[in-house]
Amino acid sequence: MEQRFKSRPTDVFIVSFPKSGTTWLAAMIFATMTRTNYPLEQHPLLTHHPEQCVSSMEKEFATGRSQIIEAIPSPRGVNGFGPIWNHVLGYWEESKRRPEKVLFLKYENIMQEPVKHAKQLAHFIGCPYSEAEESKGVVEQIVESCSFQKLKNLDGNKSGIFAVSGHHISHSYFFRKGEAGDWKNHLTQEMAEKLDTIIEEKFKGSGLKI
Asked: Does residue 74 surpass a pLDDT of 60?
């Protein structure tokens, strides 16, 4: 990919760690960019996995701006994708230097105010909602169509296999609980306090709060 891939100024990248809301964000972006192409009751997201829709979109569209990151710390802090702290902090700092190119999003914030962030996302990728669309409730309709429960319960996301880099992954793997605070069911209080200490140390002086 390093040898052949050539990015364009209009490309949109979703840059996030696994299990941090990536599939949800991909669905939101696809639905936003194609909202005038399909009526919601016949939208491809109803029958196709969001990753499949985005793959198809790459062949048809060249819109948007640059990079999008949706970040949340991993409970373990270390995994096969490299230090999450460096990953998150790097994009956080870049979002402050170039806010027109890098949009930094947090999973919990999107959950709390999905409509607000859907509008922010649409504006960032160059597909802002018109006043007429907002008055008709188009934003709310797209948020609902891309909600975690809506996507998780679709037949196309309950079964099927997604092939990437020689690996075959069940569609259902992309949907966990979709809840904030589930760490309490997996971490002891001691582990949580240790994680808080690591976060404070790694992000000290950056202005980033998780």
From this structure: no
Q: Which residue has the tokens 């209080």?
A: 189
- pLDDT value at position 124? 93
| CA dihedral for 37, 40, 42, 43, sign (positive or negative) | positive
Give me the phi and psi of 71, to 5 degrees please. Answer: -125, 145
46-71 pLDDT, tens digit per residue, is 666 555 655 444 433 333 344 444 44
> What's the maximum distance between 2 C-alpha atoms anywhere in the chain?
51
| 124 exposure class (CB count in 10 Å sphere: 0-12, 13-18, 19+) | buried
Structure tokens at 68: 């999008």
- Which candidate, 75, 64, 99, 69, places its Cα nearest to that of 183? 75
**All structural domains of the chain with their residue ranges:** 13-181
| Spatial separation of the C-alpha atoms in residues 21 and 72, rounded to whole Å | 9
- Contact assessment for residue 94 and residue 71, using Cβ atoms and an 8 Å cutoff: no
Domain 13-181 has CATH 3.40.50.300: yes
Distance CA 101, CA 40 (A): 29
